[in-house]
Amino acid sequence: MTVSSGLPDIPSAAGSPTPLVRVESLTKLFPMSRGLFRRPSAHIHAVDDVSFELFEGESFGLVGESGCGKTTIGKLLVKLMEPTGGRILFQDDRDTAGGQTLTDIVDTSGKDLKEFRRKAQMIFQDPYESMNPRRTIFDTIAEPLSVQGIGSPPERMDKVRDLLELVGLTPASTMLFRYPHELSGGQRQRVAIARALVVEPTFVVADEPTSMLDVSFSTSIMHLMSGLARQLGVTYLYITHDLAVARYMCQRIAVMYLGKIVELAETEELLSNPLHPYTRALLSAVPSPDPAHQRDPVNILGDVSAPVNPHPRCRFHDRCPMAAPQCYVESHPPMEDHGGGHLVACYRV
Amino acid sequence: MTPQTDPQSSVPPHGTEPAPTNLTAARVRLALRGFREGWSIFVESRIGVIGLAVIIIFALMAISHPILMATIWDEATYDPVTGYAFDQIEQPAPPSWAHPLGTDPLGRDVLSQLLSSTASEFILGIVAALVTVSIATMVGAVAAYYGGIVDTLLMRLADLVVSLPGLSLLIVLSALFDLNLFMLALLIGVLGGFGGSAIIFKSQALSVSVKPYIEAARVAGGGRLHIILVHIVPNLLPLSFLYMMFTVTGAIFSEAVLSYFGLLNIRMSWGIMIHTASTAGYLLGGTKYWWLIVPAGASITLLCSTFYLVGRALDEVANPRLRRR
Ligand SMILES: Nc1ncnc2c1ncn2[C@@H]1O[C@H](COP(=O)(O)OP(=O)(O)OP(=O)(O)O)[C@@H](O)[C@H]1O
Ligand SMILES: [Mg+2]
Question: Does the beta carbon of A236 sit less than 6 angstroms from any atom of ligand 1?
Answer without folding.
Answer: no
